[in-house]
Each structure stands twice: as C-alpha cells, then as structure tokens.
Amino acid sequence: MLLPCYGEYGVCWEPFERFNRAGSRGRLAVAMYPKDLRVAIIAAVGDLRWQVAKEKAQHYWMEEGLTGWYYQWFSDRKMKGDVKDAFIGDYILWITKESEGTQKLDREVRDIFWRYLPFPQEVKDKLKNRGFVYQELYKKDQNRAMSDGY
Asked: Can you give the pTM of this predicted structure?
C-alpha cells in the first residue's frame, strides 16, 4: 500500500490475512515519497520477514528460529533499543551490501542471515569467490545439505 506522505522506511502492515494464515500474503506500507525507494521497500520486506518469523515461532520467538537466534545475539551484546529495528537495519545491509560481497555485518549476524534468510543459489555461487568468509559459509551449506539425508 502506498501512503500519501514522506518517509524513509516502509513497514509491514500485516504479516498474514486474519482468516487465511497459511496461504495469504503479507501487506506492506511504503511512503509515496521516500528518500530512497529501494531502501524503503527493503525495510518493509525486512519488517515483514521479522513479523512472519515471530508469528510462526509464537511465544517461543526469543528462543527459536530467525528471531530467536537474532534476539540471543542482540541480548548477548547488551545492545540498547528495539530488537526489530536493529534487525531491519541489518537486513538492509544484508540485501544492499552483503549480497554484493561487501562485508558490513557482524560475523554472527551474517551466519544467522545466511542460514535463515539465504540468497538465491546464483548469488551464493558468486559470493563464494569473494572472500574467505563467504567461502566458509558456502562450505557449511554443502555440509548441511549432505547431512540432511541422515
């Protein structure tokens, strides 16, 4: 949904439809005149991903899955502020910088995102040649794929 206003970031309006959680799509709200449209949409999608992961984990959201791992990292660092806002900021870096091979995230956050918010395979194939960090993450993926059969 486009909102008739100025703004920097988009938001998740609703992660699921009320009566159709299984097959529904989330609703995003983006300002009609953002500073940077790409960043506004990425922020909205990041908010959506956080809300969906939190809803699926239900009352275990601080313990399991994407939100659990990120929350544990956030609290271990004794960071201040809202966990979701920090996640959205890191998600913007993940999509804009890390997808191109520029390392901007903390190592643990990169590991969490690589596992729970993976890039398409062609991006992973490109990144594995961009440095030791991505090469190690790629190897972990291969090891995980081989061990899933057992």
From this structure: 0.87
Residue 52 burial by CB count (10 A; 0-12/13-18/19+): exposed, middle or buried? middle
Structure tokens belonging to residue 112: 């969490």
Query: One-letter amino acid identity for 115?
Result: R
* DSSP assignment string, 83-147: HHHHHHHHHHHHHHTGGGT---S-HHHHHHHHHHSPPPHHHHHHHTTS-HHHHHHHHHHHHHHHH
Tell me: the pLDDT tens digits for 10-42? 888 878 777 776 777 788 889 988 989 999 999
Domains of the chain by residue range: 2-117, 120-150
Name the helix (H) or strand (E) containing 28. strand 27-34
Nearest CA among 77, 79, 95, 76 for reference residue 38: 95
With contact defined as beta carbons under 8 Å apart, do 32 and 3 qualify? yes
Instruction: Determine the 3-state secondary structure of 74 from DSSP.
Output: helix
Contact yes or no for 1/30 (Cβ under 8 A): yes
pLDDT digits (tens, 9 = 90+) for 89-120: 999 999 999 999 889 999 999 999 999 999 99
Look up tokens 């890390």; give the residue.
98
